[in-house]
Amino acid sequence: MPEKPIPPISLPKTPAATPVDAQLNSSIDALLAARLADPFSLLGPHPVKDGWAVRFFIPWADQANLAFHNSAKVTDAVKLRPEGFFEATWPSSQTTAPEPGSYKIQGRTHEGVPFEVYDPYSFPYQLSDFDLHLMAEGRHYDTYEKLGAHIKTVNGIVGTNFAVWAPSARRVSIVGDFNAWDGRIHPMRPRGSSGIWELFLPNVNEGAIYKYEITGPNENLLPLKSDPYAFRSELRPNTGSVVANLETYTWNDSNWLAAREKKNWLDSPVSVYEVHLGSWRRVPEDKNRWLTYHELADQLIPYVKEMGYTHIELLPVMEHPFDGSWGYQTLGYFVATSRYGTPAQFMEFVDRAHQAGIGVILDWTPAHFPRDAHGLAHFDGTHLYEHADPRLGAHPDWGTLVYNYGRNEVQNYLISNALFWLDKYHIDGLRVDAVASMLYLDYSRKPGEWIPNRYGGRENLHAIDFFKRMNEVAHARFPGVLTIAEESTAWPSVSRPTYLGGLGFSLKWNMGWMNDTLKYFSSNPIYRKYEHNKITFSLIYAFTENFMLPFSHDEVVHGKNSLLHKMPGDMWQQFANLRILLAYQHAHPGKKLLFMGQDFAQRNEWSEERSLDWHLLQYESHKGVQRLVSDLNHLHASEPALHQVDFEWTGFEWIDCNDGDNSVISFIRRARNREDFLVVILNATPVVRGNYRVGVPEPGFYKEILNTDSTNYGGSGVGNLGGLDSEPTQSQERPHTLLLTLPPLSALILKLQR
After folding, report:
1. Greater confidence, 3 or 27?
2. Chain Cα centroid distance, residue 690
3. Among 213, 242, 271, where does a domain finish?
4. What is the percent of the chain where pLDDT is above 90?
């Protein structure tokens, strides 16, 4: 019912305490000692002889009474304990409890300041038994709508419903800036055997800071815990959760979402710009601060659009305590990090990207979580989210904890989280980090440091089941989104449908291609003929998965050098090698990903502590690489032969893969329409090769549509004067020949002009 104003009243002195029975005394003792497991058995309205009693605990109250909305009646409260425990009784023939929100507790503090509050223990629970049943089954994929802190209106009263899973806890309380962080004031209601605790707090609204105070199974008081389902957090180093309403932002991307539902990304151009938001660009004039989500929308999105990328992939924006983890040690899985702004501001960023025709992919980390005391570790005093046995529950490489994927509620938590970002933030895809570490029980472990599965094998059967369920549900609920696996082994069928025995991902990072390619191009051109198989081997397995070709952040940190300085030779050769490397990536079958800064030949290794070196663009060599990447992206999007058949042999033909002595390879890329094709030639030595014969399937004029040695890109300008006619001479088992000049350290792409 709507709230009615209560007229001001004069408060009489609180009556003297009356004798209390032993059972009530015991419950009050437990409350005051923060040991009361079922607060509704004591607090709120209760029938007593010939009437009703309302009991409440407000330690800052000197005196108090009850004021009812539907009458002028005021009922004085008796202070039963000096700590602030009160009881108000009144005679009544009414057999049902007072309506929630039908009365307020009024009073004065010890300093004489008046206050009035609703009684949270007069309100019913908000989660249904069916919700609890589905959560226990691990099939409640909308859990983010139920657990956590949700602003609701109950009987006309606005407040926040809090709910948390802590099955082994003896007591759970909400503490925050609204109750002086006192765990005795708002203990939560246990929901039977479900392990869920919940409480509706009237008048607690958006912006309130809170945590959970939990008493563990051994009556041990745990460190205050952040909310696993919180939608917002304080800026580190503070770790409080913040009540947030995610339903206030007005989206303007309906056209994008409608088109995405019908989109088949596998035969569409996908060129991804990988970004760490905190170091893409900073504001040196303002203490080198980060850009906000709003500023990133103003600056990053136009840059990505101009460069021709189709997607932005963000290193994890989920809340994390340590900047140096880059987001990969996530604690606030449902929180867009407060480093750059509010949830609504991040929504605006995604919305504006969509309006510009750019998709947004998030890195997601269900492989592990950090041990920080305020996080998921030992959450209810037991190993709740993680395995108890360190041979299953701890990552030896990262010092983090591993999720117990065999627990229904934990699977539910992670799947719900994946769906949350696709739902509430309209995210277009999730790139799942460290998949191999989840699939293998012996990942990075020595003999004796891991436990085999029930069949004696090293496969993590629960993680496999998790991936299949997550992908099935995500693709069913949000057609057109991408799920991308960073899987570094030869695990079969990662990107095949689950009904064919696959894990169900859309794409898989091709780590083998990346490692072989970088090894080839980092070798001295004199010796590349001995590494020739590194550049051709990927085509043996290129169509066993739906591959994405990544040059990611992992390749330009921790002493690995930037892409530019991985290249051998003098400065001219380094730039030329980088240009041919980037062209080879775009010409090779597979979707593309490039980390920020490498698109203009960043010299320094990447660091999360500083901005990219944008000042390098004053130099023509760096500007030339940037022009090349832009042209490659636009060519990738405009030429069906470069994106339409990435995952079948019909889209690729070798012309010559055996000219290792000259370090030259040549091949054809075809579109669905086989008459639409491109000829690609790579010369990986700093030698100009004149009259180099390349066989082609049809006669005619072949236009040179890309030459990485163009002066526009910082090259020497050697080429074929824009194109040339074929000759009716057979070569490489093809009826026609191009007699080409191959520029030094270059890639050429030619197209038949019909």
Report:
1. 27
2. 51
3. 242
4. 92
Quick one: pLDDT band at residue 14, thresholds 50, 70, 90? very low
Does the pLDDT of residue 745 top 90, yes or no? yes
User: Is 433 among the catalytic positions?
Assistant: yes
Output the CA angle 487-489-495, nearest 5 degrees: 50
Spatial neighbors of 599 by CB under 8 A, at least 6 apart, are: 273, 307, 625, 626, 629
49 and 196, same domain (yes or no): no
By the 8 A CB rule, do 242 and 207 touch? Answer: yes
Q: Is residue 157 part of a domain?
A: yes
User: Which position among 119, 486, 545, 599 bears the catalytic label?
Assistant: 486
Residue 88: partners with Cβ closer than 8 Å, 6 or more residues away: 53, 54, 55, 64, 65, 66, 75, 76, 77, 78
Question: Residue 403 gets which letter from DSSP?
Answer: B
Please answer whether residues 243 and 149 qualify as being in contact, where contact means their C-beta atoms are separated by less than 8 angstroms: yes
Alpha-carbon gap, residue 724 to 741, rounded angstroms: 10
CB 690 within 8 A of CB 714: no
Q: Which amino acid is at 498?
A: T
Which pLDDT score is estimated for 20?
Answer: 63
Q: Which of 440, 435, 436, 444 lies closest to 452 in space, CA to CA?
A: 440
CB 573 within 8 A of CB 603: no
Selected catalytic residue, list 409, 433, 531, 545 = 433
Model-level pTM? 0.94
pLDDT digits (tens, 9 = 90+) for 264-303: 999 999 999 999 999 999 999 999 999 999 999 999 999 9
Residue 193 shares a structural domain with residue 259: no
**First and final C-alpha spacing in the chain:** 75
Pull the structure tokens for residue 415: 């799947």
Q: What share of the chain is helix, strand, coil (3-state, %, to 5)?
A: 30, 25, 45
- Cβ contacts of residue 242 below 8 Å, gap of 6+? 207, 208, 209, 210, 230, 231, 232, 233, 234
**Residue 696 domain boundaries:** 649-753
List of residues 6+ apart from 45 with CB closer than 8 A: 52, 53, 54, 97, 98, 119, 121, 122
Whether residue 681 is contained in a domain is answered as yes
User: Quick one: 395 and 419 in the same domain?
Assistant: yes
Angle between the N-to-C axes of helices 293-307 and 343-355, in degrees from 0 to 180, rounded to the nearest 10: 20
CATH code at position 340 = 3.20.20.80
Q: What is the H or E stretch that residue 23 is in?
A: helix 22-32
CB neighbourhood size of 10 (10 A): 5
> b/e per residue, 149-182, with b = 16+ CB within 10 A?
bbbeebbebebbbbbbbbbebbbbbbbbebbebb
3-state SS assignment for residue 203:
coil
Instruction: State the average pLDDT over residues 599-603.
Output: 97
Q: CA-to-CA distance for 239 and 373, rounded, in angstroms?
A: 10
CATH number for 678: 2.60.40.1180
Alpha helix segments (H runs only) across 342-482? 343-355, 390-393, 408-424, 435-439, 461-477
Which residue is it, tokens 């090769």?
689
- Spatial distance between the Cα atoms of 208 and 608, rounded to a whole number of angstroms: 31
Please state whether beta strands 507-509 and 482-485 pair in parallel, antiparallel, or not at all (unpaired): parallel
pLDDT at 19: 53
Beta carbons of 647 and 638 less than 8 angstroms apart: no
| Contact yes or no for 173/186 (Cβ under 8 A) | yes
Structure token pair of residue 8? 């001001």
Q: How many CA atoms lie within 13 A of 694 on its CB side?
A: 29
Distance CA 196, CA 172 (A): 10
CATH of residue 232's domain is 2.60.40.10
Judge if the upstream peptide bond of residue 237 is cis by omega within 30 degrees of 0.
yes
Q: How many domains does the chain have?
A: 4
Question: Using H for helix, E for strand and C for coil, what is the string for 583-613?
Answer: HHHHHCCCEEEEECCHHHCCCCCCCCCCCCC
What's the pLDDT at 95?
78
